[in-house]
Amino acid sequence: MASGKIVRPRMTHTLTRKGMTKSEARSTPESLCYLRVVSPAAASDWVRDNVLTYWPDVRFSYIIFNKGVAQYIVPAMRNIYRALSAAGPRDKIKVSTSVQYGIMGESYPPSIDEFSSQVWSVMGPIVEFLRSMGAPLLVNVYPHFSHNIDLDYAQFTAPDIVVVDGYNGLEYHNMFDAMVDAVYVVLDRVGAGNVGVVVSETG
């Protein structure tokens, strides 16, 4: 960002070069978190050049902030949301962020999950923005990254129930479901039960 230039999302241009229309696309610009430093006008320019130019032939599901300086994420998301609102497709394109599952603190069993205390100062404003805008939180969920976990439980191949949540009786055949449930639990716990969860990466 030293030059002040905003990077164009590669996916948008890949879709248009191939002539693909009416396709769901996610825009994941790496430098959007610095829009606050540039100006709200830069956000409007970015939306014009990278969204409106292709809309509605290319349908965007989300504009996702997945990298950048933490304190700029919410102001940047707000700038883009306002730019979308002014341009028209606000209700059709959600502005959100993608986070690692490591933001969770205690996540076993899922019903007692909570955000890690180290990240709450960042996640609190993000969750409040998503709650107020009706946008989902995108989470990278990787069961295989967990330690000391039964391989069948991680790979959806367990023939029987592996984990029973002792607090609510829910039964889990695979770790993926347990991890996603844990995210819903923590969102509900902080008053954001209306925030959906979208799995942005897994493996």
TrEMBL record:
The keyword NAD does not apply. Gene3D superfamilies: Glycosidases (3.20.20.80). Pfam families: Glyco_hydro_17. GO terms for molecular function: hydrolase activity, hydrolyzing O-glycosyl compounds. Belongs to the glycosyl hydrolase 17 family. GO terms for biological process: carbohydrate metabolic process. SUPFAM superfamilies: (Trans)glycosidases (SSF51445). This is Uncharacterized protein. Keywords: Glycosidase, Hydrolase.
